[in-house]
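Annotated sample (chain length 144).
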Amino acid sequence: MSSPPPFSCQYTPGFAAILNQLGLSLALSTYQAGKVVLISPKDEQTIIQLPRSFGKAMGIALHGDRMAIATKDEVIVLRNSPELAHHYPAKPAVYDSMFMPRASFFTGALDIHDLEFGKGGLFTQPSAPIVPADATTGKGKQFA
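Output written by the structure step:
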C-alpha cells in the first residue's frame, strides 16, 4: 500500500486556467504544518504544488525579486534566481523562478503574521505588541 501524499488540495476547474492566464503563482503559509506551499499552473487544467518546510511559517512578503518569510523566531529573506531555476539539476528547464535564502534576521519568539517591504526595508505588524508600532508612521519595527 502506498502512503498518502503529505497534503493535497482540491480546486475548481477554472482555477488553473485563471492562474495560467494571469501568469502567476500563489504562496501560502501554514504554521501548523510548518510549510510554505507554492501553487503554480502547469497548464490550463493542472496545478503544481511545491511545499517547502519552515519552522512555523507565517507571514510572507514579496517585492520584485525578493521574498521574506516570517518563521518561529526569524525572518528569512530570499532572492529569485531565474538562471539557477532554469538549470535546476532535478528538473532542468521546468521552473522559471527559484528563491534562494540570502539573509536571516533572528527575532526571538514572535508571531509575525504581516510583513511588508516598504521604503527603507522590511516591516512587520506582529499580532502581539512585542514590537510596538511607531506612533508617527504606523509602521512596525524595521528588519532589513
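Annotation: The longest helix spans residues 13-22.
Annotation: The first strand starts at residue 26 and ends at 30.
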